[in-house]
Amino acid sequence: MNHNKNGDKLKFDKDMIMLNIRASSSDELLKEISQLFYDKDYVHDSFKQAIIKREEQYPTGLKTTSIGVAIPHADPVHVKQESLAVGILKDAVTFNEMTSGEPLNVEIVFMLGITDSGQHLIMLKAISEILRDKEKLSNIRYAATKEEVYQCILPYISELLE
């Protein structure tokens, strides 16, 4: 396995959060959020296309009790550094729901840069904890600043960070 110098510690900071995104499609949205990973050199050039292609084949939309969420990711081969980005939409964008394939209005995207499958499961577990907390999800969705979003998510992933 190709371990980076940080030993697969998760990278997540306020630069990896986007607020009030306006996108006309899920593809446009995925490209926009992918750019955050590029800017930090966390991923290979192939990441953007890989994440879009994977979303077409294996939809990641998730219906929570309150807010539509998507958790897109690409295969580890496209990723250099374990990382997370969060995108919050001004207006919902349609994704397909992961189990039914039904169209779903998504307002929050947790995009994962995953370097191995063990980390993947740990990340999904942390995100599912957030998704179960209706109030926390609402706080993320309606946060006024990146700092607010960061502080909402931090407790769930702090042990994954360096």
UniProtKB/TrEMBL annotation:
Pfam families: PTS_EIIA_2. Transmembrane segments: none annotated. PROSITE patterns: PTS_EIIA_TYPE_2. Residues 10-156 form the PTS EIIA type-2 domain. It comes from the Bacteria. Gene3D superfamilies: Mannitol-specific EII, Chain A. This is PTS galactitol transporter subunit IIA. It comes from Oceanobacillus sojae.
